[in-house]
Specification:
The structure is a single chain. With 495 residues, the protein is mainly alpha-helical. It contains 18 helices and five strands. Strands 1-2-3-4-5 form a five-stranded antiparallel sheet. Strand 4 and strand 5 form a beta hairpin. The radius of gyration is 23 Å and the shape is globular.
Amino acid sequence: MYLKEKSTEIGWAKANVSEAMKIAKNFRKDEEFGRQMLCGPNALRIQKVRSIEGRWAGGTVPEHAIEGRSLQEVLSEGKLFEVITDELDGIPHGGNFSKKLTGTKQTWYTILADCLLYVRNDEKLVPVLIRLENRIDGKPETWWSPPEPEITDLDHPKHLAWLYAKMWFRSADMGCYALSTHFARSHAINESLAIATYRNLPNAHPILRLLQPHIQGIVPVNVNARSVLVNPGKNAFALFLSVGCDVTGVFDNYFKKFSYDELIIPQDMAERGVEDIPEYLYRDDMVSHWQIIHQYVKEMVDLSYLCDDDVTKDEELQSFFQDVVDNGFRGFENGAGFPRAVSDKEKLVEYLTAVIVNISVFHTAVNFQTFNSYTFMPNVPCCMTQPPPEQDTEVTMKLILDTLPVLEVTFFAMNISNLLGTFSPIERFYLGEPGLNKLGMMGENMAVAPSQEACIHRLGDRMRLLKEKIDARNKGRYFKYDVLSPINTPLTTQA
């Protein structure tokens, strides 16, 4: 009710509030939990489970959760997936600045939380096991699974315990989303690529002209973010996130495992083993954008580089690649996998496609759903104010409500989500939409020849077909996935 009553007063978009309220009505369902793992702001983290040893060895998946089958059977069929939060290892509890909003000093608990998911025969993805570990306080791991189907009372202790475990996992996942997925992957990396571009490629260079619509604005946006959002010791994240008091620790953990290969979308999907998950709309639309932008980049590169030797002999271009490794990813093992040199057109096209897709499409996918997904606090709590449950904890609705953030913290998090998920007024999109006051790519490019403008027009034609495909797919859906429609996909990282 608070969300509905305050939306008009505050100015939150009615369409976004409506989507958030849909989630509020359905968030307790395991099917909705699974949908958000595939189509939410942090949809890139799911990966196939290839072994139940190690991380999952201490838990037990009840047979009723996997339709009466054995765990080994569903594993061999490739139906088990996981989402893990390893970058929270060693991150202390938060709440150091909680008094600023709440008037009292609180502890916001940071834990490791992992989720095992199963693709049912009806092609729905559902959680079947959650592992929680309060490693900071030296507590043993605990295991949680869905109640038996004959228990239909949602207030039954087993249902409440399962709901509570899911909320703890989603809270940890949100910490990974805010700092790893959003800032580290789609802001910090993009800035290093933009700076290397400006430092090495002069205005007349064809690759600078190709990248300029996508890299403009990244540096000033990040300067503001470092000042306000992720400034150690006085960052805004510390006012509502459990992990917010050690943002650099999360960044360090994330970048220890980051690799350039993650930016190659088809390769990343294959390595995570997610090519065949049903209803993985994030994957479908990311791959479609990759293919379209890859074709566009190839056409533009072909206009300026007639053969591989032209790429090798372009000293300014080669300096760009070297600068990314030596300065953008200094101290990373093997430059985080970024090539120090590129010697053929095919690899050049792949590299530039990865840059453009990460700056524009990936950032769109993870940024512009925040209000819809994270506004209803029980769905994804930004912080947890009570200690995580031990295995014998009796979970009650009172415990759940006492664990959720208080109103002031909730309201602050909602406003941050709304701010970050709002388009900049100077944003340009792959497809313009005059009725929505959205400008397209034409007029915001540095093409100097008719052949280059023709490439951009063909890009627009392909994007228009993609929009039509997404529109058709969304007809009749209760939860539409249109965040990556080309009319909603900005060219650059502005928010």
